[in-house]
Amino acid sequence: MPIALSPQNPRLGPLRDLLEPRGRREQGRFLIEGPTLLEEARGSGLRLEALFVADGAAARHAALIAAVEADGTPAYTLPDRAVGRLSDLTTPTGIVAVAELPGATVPDVLARPGPVLLLAGVGDPGNAGTLVRSADAFGAAGVLAARGGVDPFSPKVVRAAMGSLFRLPIALVDAGELLEAAAAAGRAIVAADLSGEPVWGAGLPADPIIAVGHERHGVGGFLPRWDRAVRIEQAGQAESLNAAVAGSILLYLVSRRT
Predict the structure, then answer these.
(1) Pairing label, strands 75-78, 3-4
(2) Whether pLDDT at 6 is above 90
(3) Mean pLDDT, the chain, as a whole number?
(4) What is the pLDDT of residue 240?
(5) Please, which of 29, 122, 138, 205 could form a disulfide with 255 given CB 3.0 to 4.6 Å?
(6) What is the arithmetic mean of pLDDT over 30-55?
(7) Band of the pLDDT at 233, cuts 50, 70, 90?
C-alpha cells in the first residue's frame, strides 16, 4: 500500500529541482511522468527509485501502483497539488516517478554495433525526443548528446521519446571528446547539412555517427569538422526539413544499408 506523505515532507523539495537541468545534474536523477511512460520504463528494465501519486489519481492507477510496488519500488500518495508541482504539464497526470540517470559513457555507446545518433546541439526538446525515438526504431547503437544542447532527460524530451530513452544508451559529449572518440572507434561522422552532397546514392559508410545539429545553427554550431556532409534533396518549395525529419530519414537510410 502507498504511504501517505505530507506536502511539507522534506524529500519533495529536491524532487522539484529535477524539473531543471541543474537539479538533474547535481542529483543524478530525473522524473518520469504518466502511466504510459512508467509502463515503458518498467518494461525496459529501468529501476524506479520512488513513485508519487496524487490522491485523486490513486484509484485509477491502482494496478500500476501495485505492479511498481511489487518491483520493490516504494510508492507514496500526496495531495493533488503537491504532485502537480513535480510536473511541467499544464494538466498533470497525477503520477510521477524518479529514476537514476543512466551511466553510459561515450566509449560504451561507440562500442555497440550499429549507427550512432549525435544530437549536435539540437535545441528543441520535441525534435530531440523524436530523434531518439527514430534512433530506437531504426536500430541505432545509441545516442550521444552535445553538452550545451537540450538536456536529453528533460521532461519534454522524455515524453517525446515515448520510451525509447529507456532502451538506448545515452551519453553526453563535448566536441573535442567526440572527435577523438570517433577516430579511436573508426567511425565516420556524417553531418546533415544543406551544403552537403545529395544523400541518394552517396554511399554512406558503415556504422556512421549521424550528426543532426541545432535547428538554426546546424552541426557547425557544435562540431568544428566532420568526415562527410549530406543533404536530402527536396522537390517542393520548403526551405528545409525539420531537424527531426531530416535525421530520421538519414537513420532510416543507414538502417537499409545494413
Answers:
(1) parallel
(2) yes
(3) 94
(4) 64
(5) 138
(6) 97
(7) confident
Same domain, 63 and 184: no
The pLDDT value recorded for residue 215 is 83
The single-letter code of the amino acid at 110 is L
Q: Residue 203 has what pLDDT?
A: 81
Contacts of 25 (CB under 8 A, 6+ apart): none
Cell of 113: 554495433
20 and 132 inside one domain: no
State the alpha helices, DSSP H only, in the chain: 12-17, 21-27, 35-43, 62-70, 80-84, 106-111, 125-137, 155-161, 175-185, 243-257
- For 139, residues 6+ apart whose C-beta sits below 8 A from its C-beta are 114, 115, 255, 258
Residues 95 and 208 in one domain: no
CA distances from 101 to 171, 203, 226, 244 (A): 10, 37, 29, 24
Cα angle, residue 153 at apex, residues 31 and 47 outer, rounded to 5°? 50
Residue 18 sits at φ, ψ, to 5 deg, of -75, -5
Quote the cell numbers at residue 167. Answer: 532502451
Quick one: pLDDT band at residue 239, thresholds 50, 70, 90?
low
- CATH number for the domain that contains residue 161: 3.40.1280.10
Q: What are φ and ψ of residue 48, in 5° steps?
A: -90, 135
Structural domain range at position 76: 3-100
Nearest Cα to 50, choosing from 97, 6, 84?
97
Q: What angle do CA 10, 39, 23 make, to 5 degrees?
A: 35
Interval 176-194: pLDDT, tens = 999 999 999 999 999 999 8
Position 209 confidence tier, pLDDT thresholds 50, 70, 90 = very high
Which of 70, 100, 130 is the endpoint of a domain? 100
